[in-house]
Amino acid sequence: MQYLDEYRKKDLILALAEELKQVSKQEFTLMEVCGGHTMAIHRFGLPALLPPTIRLLSGPGCPVCVSSQHFLDTAIAYSKIPGSVITTYGDLIRVPGSVSSLEKEKANGRDIRIIYSVLEAVEMARANPDKNIIFLGIGFETTAPATAAAIVEAHKANLPNFFVLSAHKVMPPVMQALVMEGVKIDGFIAPGHVSAITGTAIYNDLAKLHRLGVVITGFEPVDLMLAILMLVRQLESGSPKVEIQYKRVVHSDGNKIAQDLLSKVFEMKDDTWRGLGVIPGSGLKIRDEFAIHDAEKHFDVVVPEPADPKGCICGAILRGLKTPKQCPLFARVCTPSDPVGACMVSGEGTCATYYKYRS
Amino acid sequence: MCLAIPAKVIRVDGASALVTIEDVEYQASLLLLDDVKPGDYIMLHAGFAIEKVDAEEAAETLRLLNEVADNSFQ
Q1: B10 has a chain A CB within 8 A of its CB
Q2: What is the ipTM of this complex?
Q3: What residue spans define the domains of chain A?
């Protein structure tokens, strides 16, 4: 496949692994904060190719995993309102809320539909004026612009029956929070598609103030190995900075159209990240101008108090403090077909990834 | 969720484009990207084109990689 196969070539991967062995002298810990990276790293067996000096941590990069129970419970409550249709990306369908899940409610007869593009939900609203179409907005900066575009389109088309329940979040505050909390990180393998939207300036503080290396990375094994090499070179020479490995897609200004849509439709709010608690200024809330499409302003529901499943250590895993193997429930009680915590439910969650690629 | 795939633009119809990934056709909304022409490659994410693939940068990255490969096998 064009622009994919070339970045999967075995000889390039091995050459990069060899170069890494030559260059790496000191011990460094690198964290990735993107579910796509978690998956790619383990799918292509990259940890086995790294020298023992380099440690890789998985951070809170899975937007499904960090969506709060309250968000799920609210969506489930909305599904019980007559005339409502819940539309969602597929990854959310099996995530457990306090008591139930969207999948279970769908089996109980609620109108819950998996869609590929948020624009399908806008179309549904147009075609069904008697129904309330509620879209569950999850995802980071890669995905939030699509929701913003959909809200603008629905507004233009005068569709008061199109709603969004926003759980969209942004990356830099949580990356900062982890560093401020004292999680030992020397560098970040930064999310390639988030950065394609945002541009590189959002990482400047991490490099300048906190002296961490940041390399914006693509999703093929060659991209990841090259990015790790770039990080190690930066750190070995004591010059941490923000660099782009994924130059074929990311440029330093990012996508201005997407950025403008984001600021037009959303404003920052403090938000709850499952397992991490409240991170200030990390969530996206729909601005008052578009309140007519804000599900939270329109629907009044009663939601149970969140209940954290016993024994689940998703919080520590999302911080990179523990690995799935250290969880008493992992692969015994908590499996992809019977998940307890969100880290296992989403295909990109750390636990689901470890489970799939465990030897 | 961060997954985006390179797709080739076949046709542009106003605010959306017909794209292919290995001969399978998809619709890509162009609400987040302008100046898209047939023959361009875009990154497709959740039904939206979020960025173009820069052929020159792609070639440059590969050139760099091949340099590393050549050095390491000397």
Answers
A1: no
A2: 0.92
A3: 5-32+45-63+173-244, 69-170+254-298, 314-357
